[in-house]
Amino acid sequence: MAWHPSGEWLLFTADDNGNELTQLYRVGTDGGEPLSLTNSPGVQYALALGDPFSPDGDSVAYCGNERNPADQDVLVLNTLTGDSRRLDVAGGRVFPCYWSPDGARLTVSEWRTTNSDHLVYVVPTDGGPATLLTPRDEVATYWLGPWLPDGGSFLVLTNAGRQFTGLARMDAGTGQLSWIDDPEWDVEEVSLSADGRILVWNVNVDGYSQLRARDLATGEDIAVPDLPGGTATDLTISPDGRSVVMRMSTPTRPWNLAVIDLDLGEFRWLSDARPVAADPRTFVEPTLIRYPTRDGQLVAGYLYRPMREGQAGALLMVHGGPAWQERPGYQYDGFYQYLAGHGIAVLAPNVRGSLGYGRAYSDQVNRDWGGGDLLDLADAVAFLRGLHWVDPARISVMGGSYGGFAVLSCLSRLPELDWAAGVDICGPSNLVTLAKAAPPTWKSLVTAVIGDPDAEAPRLLNRSPVTHADQIRAPLLVIQGANDPRVPKDESDQIVARLRDRGVEVQYEVFPDEGHSFIRRKNQEKAYSDAGEFLIKHLTG
Q1: Which of 91, 127, 322, 400 could pair with 353 in a Cys bridge, judged by C-beta atoms 3.0 to 4.6 Å apart?
Q2: Who contacts 462 (Cβ-Cβ below 8 Å, separation ≥6)?
Q3: Closest Cα partner for 237 from 216, 203, 218, 260?
Q4: How far lies 204's CA from each of 139, 265, 388, in Å?
Q5: 473 pLDDT band (50/70/90 cuts)?
């Protein structure tokens, strides 16, 4: 969502009960019913990934698949007349990003895969042809940032020619890169002051956020205080370039707003949201650990050890994506702290396929779901069982989306590990039916990341948990959104039916008003409360 430059109304997108067929709306600061700016129920629209408003505020950049369900076009809406027009840029999944300072051009990103393969275009907003700035035969990440004031270049986060994502300027005519920062970690976000002088960016250092800043007029770096140990996002620099506002969370503190005064070099919290029911005195700080895999790699993860004496049951928590990263924050509204308070340890690893550890590491899971990543999870169990304070007979596994697939894979293909329990949230059970049910604009992405469901059906079926469902012995809780377009409810139905036919303990919860991500607070509370009670039942006592 974004505020109109006048500050008089808010632009946002919304779907219907999680079906992800998002439409555009506006609502005034005086309240009242939102006004629909699009009305195509079977179409999915999205706002520009940067600032959707043109410099004069009269136009909005967005995208949608109204012309062809399998193609996503770049569109411009006139906020005064309500008329829209399609810009001349080809591609399957194209996203507008930022307007040039004069409003005559837009940067556009084409996603050949979601996180690792992008193309960059500059497109005239008057209908002229797009200019491709990056090579088609190159595989690289390009996350686009704001334009520089002269309109000759814009900021970009890219790993072109590198393992990690750095910060550079890209020439708007030639695509040539000029590096600003190229650390051996990923640069995640960038923000530029209104006058184009002060630049701030966020670096992901082993999962922890580190802020950097530079005065572009002098070329001198600006001293920035260390952030609290945690994760920062949504960097925004004030128009005068003197303050940086962000959202931030630590393992023991929920998401709050914070500010850095660049003149004084001081960090302070702007808000103080706290847990309503939990006692912060029981919270634990995680330990950043690395465990070895059988093929000689090291997997990083966060280990939450409960304060209680004696052996503890443990949860192996697998993140979604798979191209995502476990970070040190107040995860899932304090779910890890809740379990630790009940004497349960949590190990949240970044198995191969995770972001944050270089391009080669994240690419290892592509077209290999249930391969090397599954072995990494087996090695995580070996690591846990090597800790004297972990009860080797009480280890469980939980995850959502890809993490749910990992849960089902662990229970069905590694039954010899004698899992105490599993919690699967919206997890795929059949890679063939999952790939065939993908939304039209996702088809090429699914083929690149998972595989072709027609040409590779035997391999995908062999990696599917439903194929090995007869090996599942551990109690299982399955949680699913009824309107999930990414992992349809049928994926959970299949595995639940197989287990119930065999009399295996399975608890199945379907939320009729949710999709892939649970949005409603009451549903979030119920899902994670039920998951917590299920794990406490099987991991304590």
Answers
A1: 322
A2: none
A3: 260
A4: 22, 20, 32
A5: very high
Nearest to 406 by CA among 317, 342, 326: 317
pLDDT exceeds cutoff 80 at 115:
no
pLDDT band at 91 (very low <50, low <70, confident <90, very high): low
pLDDT computed for residue 439 by the predictor: 82
Among 494, 493, 496, 497, which Cα is nearest to 461's? 494
Contacts of residue 150, defined as CB under 8 A and 6 or more positions apart, other chains included, come to 101
SS3 429: coil
Residue 141 near residue 187, CB atoms below 8 Å: no
The mean pLDDT of the chain is 94
Judged against a pLDDT cut of 90, whether residue 144 lies above it is answered with: yes
Q: What is the Cα–Cα distance from 314 to 540, expressed in whole angstroms?
A: 10
pLDDT tops 70 at residue 314:
yes
Q: Tokens 């049951």 sit at which residue?
A: 313
Residues 6 or more apart whose Cβ sits within 8 Å of residue 8: 28, 29
Strand ranges inside 367-513, DSSP E: 390-400, 421-425, 476-481, 506-511
